[in-house]
Amino acid sequence: MIPEDVAFLPIREIARHLAARDFTAVELVELYLERIARLNETAKAFITVTDATARERAARIDRGVADGATPAPLAGIPFAVKDLIDVAGVKTTAGSRVLADNVAQGNAFLVDRMLDAGAVVLGKANLHEFAYGATGENSVYGTAVNAYDPGRLAGGSSSGPAAAVAFGLVPAAFGTDTGGSTRAPAALCGLVGLKPTIGRISTSGVIPYCWSLDHIGLIARSVGDAALLLQTVAGHDPQDPGCAGEPNGDYTSRLDDGVSGLRVGVPHGFYFEHCDEEILAAAQAVLAHLEDLGATVVAVDLPSMEHARTVSLTLQMPEALSYHTRYLAERGALYGDDLRAGLALGQCLLAEHYVRARRMLTRYREETSDVLRKVDVIVTPATPTVAPPVGSTSVTTAGKTEAVGNAITRYTTFFNMSGHPAVTVPSGLHSTGLPMGVQVVGRNFDEATLLRVAAAIEAGDRFRVRPPRLDHCPRPG
Amino acid sequence: MEKVTKETLRRVIAQLAAFPWRDEEVDELVAPRMGIITGFQDLLVDLETLRQRDLGATPPAQSPRKDPAPE
Lengths: 477, 71
Description:
heterodimer; A: alpha/beta; 14 helices; B: mainly alpha; about 0% strand; elongated
């Protein structure tokens, strides 16, 4: 019997235990499957659990090890994918009744890369319908909740991946990030959320929401795990016209090099306004910590956020409508009301509006890259608020009232437009007992430096977030 | 700029797109209740401000290039 706390170990430690034969891949899979059976009713993290294939694959890995084969780098490591990401022979529902019977014919590019590395798919994780919304609320499959307080949201749209990792149902999960949909839920759940440079990870085999802003994201328990996963799934995919031609970097070997000599930019205004005081204080403590380690903190000016939401929405809804046209015609009545209204908005914008938004993206990208000529990274709070209560429609933070989804993604959404890589890392626990986080943004295709800074933050004891107690959940039988 | 009306949107949809959006979806655009769309009218006003901004010859976004290291 594997101790329960293994479920909360980072991948690199689990891999060490597997290599030392402290437990087998089958035993590890059984640990997580038992937890899913016991906790998913509360967490609502998984839509589909691929238990049979996971058991078969783990047994095959164990047989290989017994026969003396050299194990692949992630041999026996379980993972989950947001249910927009294809796994051959398994339904990809997108969290919607529209695709309730949609069985994937093949694997997404990133799933193939993970399987090639020996990892084991445990299932398909919950989400906001078709990734439309940052609350993760889902009337069909239930709303994934926060492991630190099940009355609170996990955040979205990658709500299931965040909840799955936070509840200890899987060591890591992949999501998508169109406005912060991976980074924000990771921050709200005390995890690491990485969105690499746009195009760094192929989106082949992933249901799109908005091609101009969609990124693959990943949620892990540590920065080291995030680096390992990025190393595994990044790389050129000739089948994906949006996939960058940049060669894959080395994300793992310099993680512990520290931040001495690096320049850390802190943006004025927007990113430090109307923010929870404890979250602000934690962000300031992170900056002081980086200075203590030898980094230089300097003030920077990011592009004006005045029109950022407008630009984002003007790209999102026409692109989403364009993808959904065929399903609207065939199964329009099966869509949620909020998504249908958003798609209707996409119908009523002018072509000039859309082109102008695309041109604004160019401006945002150029202006942000200009800032990153002067500094190595930019640091902001990850979210202005801790996880809001399930069912709330608005949140008021330091005098600003806004829709819950807008609040959750207020600090993350711009970097989907600029395309720069960004990672959220825990910055401690709030007095409510809920996690807080900071966001680190880096230069295009320089995820290595970004992750190095994130690792330095993670190494600060006061920023660590203990695993959730799960007092509200059933205990092991 | 005049305020957009439900009737205008109904005609735009019927004459330019012909997709049968339901009344409640068009209502959501002119009088939002769900909280995700902040209001079509507000969006149009902001887009009009953006439309008047001189972006010179800035082209629509292409794939990002690798950034140089800090100077």
